[in-house]
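In this section we walk through a basic example: taking a raw amino acid sequence and producing a predicted 3D structure, encoded as discrete structure tokens. The instruction is simple. Fold the sequence below.
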Amino acid sequence: MRMEIDEVEGWLRERLPGLAEEHGVPGVAVAVDAGGRLVEAAAGVLSTATGVEATVDSVFQIGSVTKVLTATLVMGLVAEGLVELDAPVDTYLPGFREVTVRQLLCHTAGFEGDVFTDTGKGDDCLERYVELLADVPQLFEPGTMFSYNNAGYSVLGRIVEVVRGEPFDRCMRDHLFTPLGMTHAASDPYEAILHRAAVGHLGGRPASVWAMARSNAPAGSMLAMTPRDLLAFVRMHLADEGLRAMREPQVALPDIGWGTAWGLGWELYDLPGGPVFGHNGNTIGQSAVLRVDPGREVSVAIFTNGGDRKPLMKEILDRVIESPAEPVPDPAVRPDARRLAGVYASSTSQTTVSADEQGRLWLERVPLGLAVEAGDEPYRTELLGWRGDSLLPAEPGHGPVAFLGDDGEGHARYLHTGRADVRTAARIEP
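The resulting token sequence is shown next.
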């Protein structure tokens, strides 16, 4: 791998500035680790308002990649015999709904997960946030399917601080950052300001807000670091046999262009060249991607602060690590418009699926709540056949959607894009 990593290093230094400019990405930082040999590169600026240069020591928000660190803290409690994976959550948080720790870790808890209520900046914010979850709806029976759940990871963060007897961010620093030498990891804006900190960009301009609510910190609302620090965390996972259980499949994913399955925190990819694991993250104008090939001991972390980051990330990933094949429409697949048409809703979007006179299916999605604040925009696209009830949006930049379940009248119960949006009473018949 030595020659390969040298080639990657040279390519990054030569190509990264142009790649960022081509895709309108203000700033980008990358680290690649191959068997302990680390290379880093950065390009662009941390904010177009200040023009401060992005360097390999700059910290970017990692968004939901934070969830893997939160899961690792929970697994540390499991290893110490302080938490049991299959114990009800109310063992540690009395009065919480019927769900297990394992179900929270692998996103099968089944309750509404996009809850971003700000409960303040104090050390009691997680406690207050978890109390609010008593009122959120249960979408499906726990353990029966996957639906990405941000709220569930805030609950896990609360379990960590209750069992440890310390605020969550202090647990993160004491049990991960300090032991692993993660010197450029910031739990909040007060720590981030001590470093060169990236600012998210929306519509080409710096976002007016740097971070989301502290109550969602265990799910990924605040944590910032360098790619180098994140790969130090990955090296621990590759070296520690006790953490291998986190990469064992817990629930299969629907055909939505994500991984094959979810483990205890990790997204898992079963690829022709062998297994790969990782996680993605997005906050207000900032994005992160982490991929690990354990067979080759290769890992890559890419952080950006705006622009059209997906093609940039893909070009870098393809140089370093195997990725799933891009989905291609299958004209032989004929979607059942009667089953699929309808209105599907969650706390962050409302989606209408309808058929036109030629029998073509159309999807129209309107973002709601925090999705609007994060820069999501409404869009309308035709849905093309792919795999059974999993269809591909014709408009570039949008991943597959899967229609699951049955409402008892022959209609799909859920529209799945990673989260299971529920069919509402309103119906659009073909």
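Looking at the output, two observations stand out. The CA atoms of residues 16 and 43 lie 6 Å apart. The two ends are 55 Å apart (CA to CA). In the next section we compare this with other chains.
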